[in-house]
UniProtKB/TrEMBL annotation:
SUPFAM superfamilies: Gamma-glutamyl cyclotransferase-like (SSF110857), Nudix (SSF55811). A motif (Nudix box) lies at residues 257-279. Acts on ADP-mannose and ADP-glucose as well as ADP-ribose. Prevents glycogen biosynthesis. The reaction catalyzed by this enzyme is a limiting step of the gluconeogenic process. Transmembrane segments: none annotated. It catalyses: ADP-D-ribose + H2O = D-ribose 5-phosphate + AMP + 2 H(+). Keywords: Hydrolase, Magnesium, Metal-binding. Belongs to the Nudix hydrolase family. NudF subfamily. It holds the Pfam family NUDIX. This is ADP-ribose pyrophosphatase. It comes from Wenxinia saemankumensis. One of its GO terms (biological process) is nucleoside phosphate metabolic process. GO terms for molecular function: ADP-ribose diphosphatase activity; ADP-sugar diphosphatase activity; metal ion binding.
Length: 372
């Protein structure tokens, strides 16, 4: 079957990962159409215009099934259209968007997309490549925002500084995986992988089989009122303590939420503080960033203090109905929060670390000029 590709799948790296192998084609034109830009830089085909540049590929069997799995669950449908290639007109299948783009949508351009979203989409396609044969396409599409969030976390990790004043400064080949991980799950993923690594004695470890929860980057915020030395804590029921068998799974935590793909850590912190605590106009101060459980999870948390007026926020009920969040805010003195750490009522490690940081640094925060 001839398939005309006009959007992101013209990118050879993305196309190969989605198709499962390199997929070459011929330059072609789709007459009487144009491509406009939709949400998240997505290309939307529309009738009208002088014609669309694209790629004509031969696709069938598993390759076509994989391409369909990448497009159809998002509402795209294949339809027959005439395409012009090498001076002749041929009949080809093309993926049509679920709805035509708005009239004021700007033209879509491959180079612009490659600069704005190409690295993230290519990275997300790695998980698609691993998962497409093991997970229903509809489930993969339903959790696509998490696929992209995990991809964004990997890109962020690869770009972060890695100081090694005390710890090992490893060579690029210090850890060697035995192949791509096996993934299970949906919203969160459990990865099973084999690997070997350099040892402190100068040798190489045996093959290690490990299972790791593949999470995301998250922004954590501890609101603090410098006028009253009070902090805002969030209470909610948590499944982790429940499954462990805790008699009381309601947990006290900081404001927290996932850093969405394409979102800065600071923007996520501000968004989550408004959603969960009803606080706006806050001043963020970065505390630290950390792996809460590096032996079993890829989760990476960015912790902030938020200077704010908390006088009207005790008992605030927050969270998004769309995410079935049921949250209650508590505004209490910092000293009492530290007492709750001692009694064990505060048992969430990130909150404990953030409270201890605040106890140590609140005098500096109080002295900082507004807007700093």
């Amino acid at each position: 079957m001839l398939l005309f590709l006009y959007g992101t799948l013209r990118d050879p790296v993305l196309r190969a990962r989605v198709a499962g192998r390199p997929l070459d084609g011929r330059a072609a034109i789709l007459p009487g159409h144009e491509v406009r830009t939709g949400a998240e830089h997505l290309p939307l085909l529309a009738e009208g215009g002088s014609g669309v540049e694209g790629l004509l590929v031969e696709a069938g069997g598993e390759v076509l099934a994989r391409l369909d799995a990448y497009e159809v669950p998002f509402g795209y449908v294949r339809a027959e259209r005439p395409a012009r290639v090498d001076g002749e007109v041929v009949s080809a299948q093309v993926y049509l968007p679920p709805a035509p783009p708005p009239d004021d949508a700007p033209p879509w351009d491959l180079a612009t997309w490659e600069a704005a979203d190409g690295p993230l989409s290519r990275e997300a396609a790695k998980e698609f490549d691993i998962s497409v044969c093991a997970m229903p396409a509809e489930a993969l599409a339903r959790n696509w925002h998490m696929v992209r969030a995990r991809a964004a976390a990997r890109l962020a990790a690869s770009a972060e500084a890695a100081p090694a004043e005390l710890r090992t400064d490893p060579a690029p080949d210090a850890v060697v995986p035995g192949g791509p991980p096996e993934l299970a799950g949906g919203f969160f993923r459990l990865a099973r992988l084999d690997l070997r690594h350099r040892t402190f004695s100068g040798g190489t470890s045996p093959v290690l089989s490990r299972e790791v929860l593949v999470g995301v980057d998250a922004a954590l915020v501890l609101p603090w009122d410098p006028a009253t030395d009070r902090v805002l804590l969030i209470e909610q029921m948590r499944v982790g303590p429940f499954l462990r068998g805790a008699s009381n799974p309601w947990t006290l935590e900081p404001v927290a939420g996932i850093v969405d793909a394409g979102e800065s850590v600071e923007a996520a912190a501000l968004r989550e503080t408004a959603e969960e605590a009803g606080l706006t106009g806050i001043r963020l101060t970065r505390m630290f960033a950390f792996y809460p459980s590096p032996g079993s999870s890829t989760d990476y948390f960015h912790a902030f203090a938020a200077t704010a007026d908390l006088s009207a926020h005790d008992g605030h009920l927050g969270g998004l109905d769309s995410e079935a969040e049921d949250l209650r805010a508590h505004v209490i003195p910092l000293a009492r929060a530290l007492d709750l750490v001692d009694t064990g009522e505060i048992s969430a490690g990130p909150l404990i670390a953030m409270l201890l940081w605040l106890e140590r640094n609140r005098h500096r925060l109080r002295a900082a000029p507004a807007g700093s």
